[in-house]
């Protein structure tokens, strides 16, 4: 191996890379938040009795789940551009990731809902709660608990997939790295550092989510069954 | 008084209740026995308005359950219900489980609802478990919690749907004891059960369901002692 | 000024170009799914059956592949084999990265499958005198496979979709080919539509077939 | 060394960026063509070997080189000092000016108008970093936004779709795009005030013999008039001077 | 003969069996009763070599179960075992369930193994269910399938671990009848059960487990009629 590793430029540009990492986090949190809200709406749309709503929800969910995330990103980037809708790469990435998250989490919500024994709803109604009260006070907290773990996984996925931002010119962690790399041509060193940063971010977020999960749902507050 | 008149109920094409007539008077304990799938649970759901009926009328204290004008949420406060399992809300502590409906439905202030909850929990013997979550309770304790939760709405009637059949044999006793206590206090109850001993001891009347009809109904001595229906004889032989 | 046409209209042979690229997508994903699944099953078994040290080590190792973006893994591996002096065509470096990535995902699925077999079922088979491997072969494998088959289908489909990322190291698969055509012809919707339809046509029936098989197994 | 290897193999492998018309792109048969491609063919012919063009993106140029997937990168790469710490450059074989490319109806006339516009460029190019550096020093509080694109062609698409008001490209590309109607009505904008972009061929840093050979090849291309020929074929107009006045090298 | 001598067994820090001594003679039916968690199942697993022990010796027909030199797969063929639930291999038909071990362990030819399976299935009354998958069977039928499957290995001993306690009350009878049949045919059996009636009727001896020790052992009349241990008295009062 003739190649000499040169880490100094990487260390010097660490602040810039961390700046990119903070964009990564921003984009991910934003996509996740929007995606979750959309997912809940899609979930109810899919369970609704109105065929039009069900149709739209189905199309959305199936496209999100059956095409590559990169395809979805290109679609938002080129496709919307072609019809004259102007968006910059930051919003493109957020839209694509939120679109995908909504599709996947909508199904998770539906599954979580179905997993709650129907005696729960019946118990609540038999106590005289209205349908809405039963949903809010009994079903929703359990739903949230049921989807918390998949939601955490989706969050990590979103963080990792936000690296696609690099391919549409967003200067998040990967994009920033590519920019730095093209100045010095030190591919391995820069991307190795980036890989480590992603790993640390993923672990940090996972740890944080687990901590929050334990705090909110408590280890001793098991679900049913 | 609960009165059920000529009630028919189907799920899709399957008729599950084929014309049920029944009256349960104030202070009476009616137990309902019958094979799996005979429609026992369905009847309880209909009485509580949790399922619509295709024909017939059910009245509770003179109010028609399936009448559009009836405020079901209001009516249901009069009727407590305990299911076979998964009664307890897993995300709330024992105390919160019991206090939830008084607070949200009766809109009692928090302190008052909790005082009520506390007294009901003591009533069923869970005074020391108030701050535990349901999964820290045994199955029997969870069922007693469900009873306390229903009682906190101060119902006139209690419906039990095989409240003990998901329990380990050792835990059945404590739940039955709590139900017995209620019966002694004069609560009007409909009890779907597989526990023949309990049914014989506690009920004023026993109804035997077979394929969606009440094949036999009467005092326990008669139903268990001199069953006239052939199906009932077979059923009793099986469960011993 | 210039006499050369830099940009052109979409032509019939461009569809052929897309078709070939679609085949490459199929090829690289099937190779990766096949090898990755085999390795993943072995890893999954090691995690389910091994002692704590093995479990911990395997978990930590495979976790790396689940915690670093596939895009970065591809670029990094490609750069690494480059400087290490083992140049290989994009197909091979892409396949290797995708396979390892797949195996990391399949490992947790396989582990779940093995652990999903109720202890009493395994005790029952051992109590009949079946040996460890007979138990694995005749009870754990078929029963566990059924319980995690849908997850495995899910992993495979996501690898198929993620194979689009291999384009960053120069492998011209479907999405890269579409991108080439889009930039040449600016026929954005038509080309993206074809690419999307292809992925959909592959993914949707497979996931439905997976659900169908799952339901049939549940009935049997 | 590499020179011997290529001669012995009988095949020269060149990395060319194929979304950078007219230097490198794909024709209607999706085959690589362009000035860089012809350069590669000429070089192979001079050595009496076959040639193979390996299409790369901007980002893949170096890994392809270092891994030995290619022998030389004829990929319109600017010869910055920073990059030369990693790879070896030949003398320049081409020079570019940077120019804004605009939509026909844009009301940008002077370079300064770009201050408040949305401007894009292909990621990792010299003109991207030059533009960003210029923006930071001259327009520190510019309200306009900057966007990078993955390839040159994407940036054409973006400006034609109106995703940005202007993209910075090379003069060669700009002329070409404007003459084609593929991207709709586009026009040439102001030329960038920052310097010309000299690009060299690249190979491994330690391949002195090979670099010497390549330098001589570039020299002969110009002496023989082949460079002017290629320039006329792919770009048209007056070929630029590749020498730098007042300097030896 | 099964002999258990001073066996101690822990899971981690928790000692579950605290010195068990027991002998079960040829043709004897021993039933084991005791509260949940007292170690009943664990003892059966140890006898079958499914769990290691920390101390003591278990011998089956004179072979030491936990000796390294013992071929456990061979020994286990002598001991049939039926568990509380999830016994049936869900991916195989009833016939295949029973034929699997004879084919793979005894390496019988397919036809022979199936003939054997068929006769055992008829023995337990499942002759007409041979080509169904277990999930088409009731819980009781599944347990009888498990019994047939164990019998197909022609064991000398049968161990039952609460084989009926996951069943609906109506289905308990048919499984107990099958077990009774086995006992009458002279099979040596250890039966962990909550069914006191069955235990009293069928067992030669009854052992009462309490927190990892055998607190009382003797003939059913004595154990149920004049329990001497206080724990046993309490236990019997609870389960009635
Ligand atoms: N939501 C439903 N949709 C369709 N069929 C139903 C539904 N709920 C119950 N059934 C059917 O109605 C019949 C009566 O059910 P029900 O639960 O009332 O019986 P049960 O007497 O309570 O039996 P068990 O003792 O098993 O609880 C059964 O055949 C059941 O399959
Ligand atoms: N694999 C295990 N790891 C740790 N502890 C175990 C394990 N299996 C059983 N135990 C513990 O050993 C004790 C005895 O368990 P065992 O299953 O033998 O009781 P049992 O008498 O069969 O009870 P039950 O009537 O509930 O089946 C229990 O406290 C149980 O929690
Ligand atoms: Mg029922
Ligand atoms: Mg047990």
From TrEMBL, chain A:
<dbReference type="InterPro" id="IPR000515">
    <property type="entry name" value="MetI-like"/>
</dbReference>
<dbReference type="InterPro" id="IPR043429">
    <property type="entry name" value="ArtM/GltK/GlnP/TcyL/YhdX-like"/>
</dbReference>
<dbReference type="Pfam" id="PF00528">
    <property type="entry name" value="BPD_transp_1"/>
</dbReference>
<feature type="transmembrane region" description="Helical">
    <location>
        <begin position="190"/>
        <end position="212"/>
    </location>
</feature>
<feature type="transmembrane region" description="Helical">
    <location>
        <begin position="154"/>
        <end position="170"/>
    </location>
</feature>
<dbReference type="GO" id="GO:0015184">
    <property type="term" value="F:L-cystine transmembrane transporter activity"/>
</dbReference>
<feature type="transmembrane region" description="Helical">
    <location>
        <begin position="74"/>
        <end position="99"/>
    </location>
</feature>
<dbReference type="InterPro" id="IPR010065">
    <property type="entry name" value="AA_ABC_transptr_permease_3TM"/>
</dbReference>
<keyword id="KW-0813">Transport</keyword>
<keyword id="KW-0029">Amino-acid transport</keyword>
<keyword id="KW-1133">Transmembrane helix</keyword>
<protein>
    <submittedName>
        <fullName>ABC transporter permease</fullName>
    </submittedName>
</protein>
<feature type="domain" description="ABC transmembrane type-1">
    <location>
        <begin position="21"/>
        <end position="209"/>
    </location>
</feature>
<dbReference type="InterPro" id="IPR035906">
    <property type="entry name" value="MetI-like_sf"/>
</dbReference>
<keyword id="KW-1003">Cell membrane</keyword>
UniProtKB/TrEMBL annotation, chains B, E:
<comment type="similarity">
    <text>Belongs to the ABC transporter superfamily.</text>
</comment>
<dbReference type="GO" id="GO:0015424">
    <property type="term" value="F:ABC-type amino acid transporter activity"/>
</dbReference>
<dbReference type="GO" id="GO:0016887">
    <property type="term" value="F:ATP hydrolysis activity"/>
</dbReference>
<feature type="domain" description="ABC transporter">
    <location>
        <begin position="2"/>
        <end position="236"/>
    </location>
</feature>
<keyword id="KW-0067">ATP-binding</keyword>
<dbReference type="InterPro" id="IPR017871">
    <property type="entry name" value="ABC_transporter-like_CS"/>
</dbReference>
<dbReference type="InterPro" id="IPR050086">
    <property type="entry name" value="MetN_ABC_transporter-like"/>
</dbReference>
<keyword id="KW-0547">Nucleotide-binding</keyword>
<dbReference type="GO" id="GO:0005524">
    <property type="term" value="F:ATP binding"/>
</dbReference>
<keyword id="KW-0813">Transport</keyword>
<keyword id="KW-1003">Cell membrane</keyword>
<dbReference type="InterPro" id="IPR003439">
    <property type="entry name" value="ABC_transporter-like_ATP-bd"/>
</dbReference>
<dbReference type="InterPro" id="IPR003593">
    <property type="entry name" value="AAA+_ATPase"/>
</dbReference>
<dbReference type="InterPro" id="IPR027417">
    <property type="entry name" value="P-loop_NTPase"/>
</dbReference>
<dbReference type="GO" id="GO:0005886">
    <property type="term" value="C:plasma membrane"/>
</dbReference>
Automatic annotation (TrEMBL), chain C:
<protein>
    <submittedName>
        <fullName>Amino acid ABC transporter</fullName>
    </submittedName>
</protein>
<feature type="transmembrane region" description="Helical">
    <location>
        <begin position="70"/>
        <end position="92"/>
    </location>
</feature>
<feature type="domain" description="ABC transmembrane type-1">
    <location>
        <begin position="22"/>
        <end position="210"/>
    </location>
</feature>
<dbReference type="InterPro" id="IPR010065">
    <property type="entry name" value="AA_ABC_transptr_permease_3TM"/>
</dbReference>
<keyword id="KW-0029">Amino-acid transport</keyword>
<dbReference type="InterPro" id="IPR035906">
    <property type="entry name" value="MetI-like_sf"/>
</dbReference>
<dbReference type="InterPro" id="IPR043429">
    <property type="entry name" value="ArtM/GltK/GlnP/TcyL/YhdX-like"/>
</dbReference>
<feature type="transmembrane region" description="Helical">
    <location>
        <begin position="138"/>
        <end position="160"/>
    </location>
</feature>
<dbReference type="InterPro" id="IPR000515">
    <property type="entry name" value="MetI-like"/>
</dbReference>
<dbReference type="GO" id="GO:0015184">
    <property type="term" value="F:L-cystine transmembrane transporter activity"/>
</dbReference>
<keyword id="KW-1133">Transmembrane helix</keyword>
<keyword id="KW-0812">Transmembrane</keyword>
<feature type="transmembrane region" description="Helical">
    <location>
        <begin position="180"/>
        <end position="202"/>
    </location>
</feature>
<dbReference type="GO" id="GO:0043190">
    <property type="term" value="C:ATP-binding cassette (ABC) transporter complex"/>
</dbReference>
<dbReference type="Pfam" id="PF00528">
    <property type="entry name" value="BPD_transp_1"/>
</dbReference>
């Amino acid at each position: 191996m003739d190649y000499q590793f040169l880490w100094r430029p990487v260390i010097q540009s660490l602040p810039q890379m961390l700046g990119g990492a903070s964009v990564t986090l921003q984009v991910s949190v934003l996509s996740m938040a929007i995606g979750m809200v959309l997912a809940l709406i899609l979930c109810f749309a899919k369970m609704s009795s109105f065929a039009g709503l069900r149709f739209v929800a189905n199309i959305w969910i199936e496209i999100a789940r059956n095409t590559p995330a990169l395809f979805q990103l290109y679609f938002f980037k080129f496709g919307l551009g072609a019809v004259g809708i102007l968006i910059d790469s930051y919003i493109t990435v957020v839209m694509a990731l939120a679109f995908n998250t909504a599709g996947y989490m909508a199904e998770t919500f539906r599954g979580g809902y179905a997993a709650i024994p129907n005696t729960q709803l019946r118990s609540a109604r038999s106590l005289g709660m209205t349908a809405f009260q039963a949903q809010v006070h009994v079903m929703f907290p359990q739903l949230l608990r049921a989807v918390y773990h998949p939601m955490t996984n989706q969050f990590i996925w979103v963080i990792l997939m936000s690296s696609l931002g690099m391919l549409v010119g967003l200067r998040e962690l990967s994009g920033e790295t590519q920019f730095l790399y093209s100045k010095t041509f030190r591919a391995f060193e820069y991307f190795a550092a980036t890989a480590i940063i992603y790993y640390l971010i993923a672990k940090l977020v996972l740890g944080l989510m687990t901590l929050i999960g334990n705090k909110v749902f408590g280890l001793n507050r098991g679900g049913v069954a | 008084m609960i009165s059920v008149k000529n009630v028919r109920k189907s799920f899709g094409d399957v008729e599950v209740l084929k014309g049920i007539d029944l009256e349960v008077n104030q202070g009476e304990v009616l137990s309902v026995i019958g094979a799996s799938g005979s429609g026992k649970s369905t009847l309880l759901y209909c009485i509580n308005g949790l399922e619509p009926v295709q024909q017939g009328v059910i009245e509770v204290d003179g109010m028609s359950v399936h009448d559009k004008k009836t405020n079901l949420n209001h009516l249901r406060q009069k009727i407590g219900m305990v299911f076979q399992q998964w009664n307890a809300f897993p995300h709330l502590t024992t105390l919160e489980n019991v206090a939830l409906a008084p607070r949200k439905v009766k809109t009692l202030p928090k302190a008052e609802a909790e005082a009520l909850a506390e007294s009901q929990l003591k009533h069923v013997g869970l005074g020391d478990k108030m701050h535990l979550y349901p999964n820290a309770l045994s199955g029997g304790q969870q069922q007693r919690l469900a009873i306390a939760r229903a009682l906190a709405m101060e119902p006139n009637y209690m419906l039990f749907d095989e409240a003990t059949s998901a329990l380990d044999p050792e835990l059945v006793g404590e739940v039955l004891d709590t139900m017995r206590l209620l019966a002694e206090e004069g609560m009007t109850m409909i009890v779907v059960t597989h526990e023949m001993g309990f049914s014989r001891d506690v009920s004023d009347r026993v109804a035997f369901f077979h394929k969606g009809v009440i094949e036999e109904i009467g005092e326990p001595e008669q139903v268990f002692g001199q069953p006239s229906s052939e199906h009932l004889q077979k059923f009793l032989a099986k469960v011993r | 000024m210039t006499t050369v046409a830099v940009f052109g209209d979409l032509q019939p042979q461009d569809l052929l170009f897309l078709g070939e690229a679609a085949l490459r997508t199929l090829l690289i994903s099937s190779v990766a799914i096949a090898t990755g699944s085999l390795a993943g099953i072995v890893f999954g078994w090691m995690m389910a059956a091994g002692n704590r040290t093995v479990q911990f080590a395997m978990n930590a190792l495979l976790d790396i592949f689940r915690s670093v973006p596939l895009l970065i893994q591809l670029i990094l591996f490609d750069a690494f084999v480059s400087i290490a002096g083992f140049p290989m065509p994009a197909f091979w470096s892409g396949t290797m990265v995708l396979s390892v990535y797949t195996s990391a995902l399949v490992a947790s699925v396989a582990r779940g499958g093995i652990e999903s077999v109720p202890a009493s079922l395994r005790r029952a088979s051992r109590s009949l005198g079946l040996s460890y491997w007979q138990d694995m072969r005749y009870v754990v494998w078929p029963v566990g496979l059924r319980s995690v088959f849908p997850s495995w289908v899910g992993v495979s489909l996501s690898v198929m979709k993620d194979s689009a990322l291999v384009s960053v190291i120069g492998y011209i698969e479907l999405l890269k080919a579409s991108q080439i055509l889009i930039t040449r012809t600016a026929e954005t919707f038509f080309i993206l539509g074809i690419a999307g339809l292809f992925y959909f046509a592959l993914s949707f029936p497979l996931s439905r077939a997976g659900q169908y098989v799952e339901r049939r197994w549940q009935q049997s | 060394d590499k020179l011997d290897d290529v001669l012995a193999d009988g095949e020269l492998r060149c990395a060319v960026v194929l979304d950078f018309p007219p230097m490198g792109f794909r024709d209607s048969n999706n085959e690589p063509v362009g000035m860089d491609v012809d350069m590669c063919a000429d070089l192979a012919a001079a050595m009496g070997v076959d040639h193979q063009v390996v299409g790369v993106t901007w980002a893949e140029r170096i890994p392809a080189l270092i891994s030995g997937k290619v022998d030389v990168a004829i990929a319109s790469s600017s010869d910055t000092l920073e990059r030369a710490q990693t790879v070896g450059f030949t003398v320049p074989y081409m020079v570019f000016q940077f120019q804004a490319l605009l939509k026909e109806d844009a009301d940008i006339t002077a370079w300064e108008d770009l201050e408040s516009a949305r401007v894009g460029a292909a990621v990792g190019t010299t003109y991207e970093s030059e533009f960003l550096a210029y923006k930071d020093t001259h327009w520190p509080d510019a309200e306009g936004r900057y966007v990078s694109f993955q390839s040159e062609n994407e940036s054409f698409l973006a400006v034609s779709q109106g995703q940005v008001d202007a993209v910075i490209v090379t003069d060669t590309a700009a002329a070409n795009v404007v003459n084609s109607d593929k991207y709709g009505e586009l026009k040439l904008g102001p030329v960038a005030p920052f310097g010309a972009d000299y690009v060299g061929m690249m190979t491994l840093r330690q391949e002195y013999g090979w670099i010497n050979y390549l330098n001589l090849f570039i020299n002969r291309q110009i002496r023989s008039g082949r460079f002017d020929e290629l320039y006329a074929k792919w770009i048209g107009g007056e070929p630029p001077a590749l020498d730098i006045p007042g300097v030896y090298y």
